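Q: How do we represent a protein-ligand complex in a form that can be generated token by token?
A: Start from the inputs.
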Amino acid sequence: MANKAKKIIIRPARKSDGKNISSFLRSFPKEQVLQNYFPDYKTSFVAVDLKGRVIGHCGLDISKTGLAELRSLAVAKEYRRLGIASKLVTKCVKLARRKKMWEVFAVTGAEKFLKTQGFRNLPKHMVFLFKDIN
Ligand SMILES: CC(C)(COP(=O)(O)OP(=O)(O)OC[C@H]1O[C@@H](n2cnc3c(N)ncnc32)[C@H](O)[C@@H]1OP(=O)(O)O)[C@@H](O)C(=O)NCCC(=O)NCCS
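Then emit the structure tokens for the protein with coenzyme A bound:
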């Protein structure tokens, strides 16, 4: 298993990765990875195998308010539980710090995993609300 992880490179996404990233992310159900739009490649990271195939992705949406949203986090099934998502999230959090963001938040189905990465619920007196406007 450790060998498998060694063959994976985690790096900033490039413009030329665009098509590979979207076809990778579109292979996940919409309930897991929102499909409306994907984060800018300039604030995203990919995990690629030795053949250059995208097997993992995580990006940030940077906002002027100082809030960054962790977006489009996904790792291919056969590469899970190797620490790849943890590395991708760490890269995004470091990038958010460099961009002088105050906080990083995520709307996620992977609550347990993100809590291992230091994410936590809103304080008890606050809730997250949304309205579907379409
Ligand atoms: C959530 C997801 C991104 C996690 O990817 P991953 O690369 O498997 O994550 P990691 O390997 O970093 O960590 C996953 C678990 O493996 C464990 N792990 C990490 N390295 C390990 C290793 N070498 N050996 C055994 N376990 C390991 C971690 O501790 C973690 O444990 P936990 O599930 O108890 O929290 C992946 O399951 C996924 O793509 N899910 C579908 C898409 C999705 O739901 N995305 C979230 C949208 S925000």
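Residues 28, 32-33, 73-75, 80-86, 106, 108-110, 112-113, 116 surround coenzyme A (CB under 6 Å). The chain has four helices and five strands.
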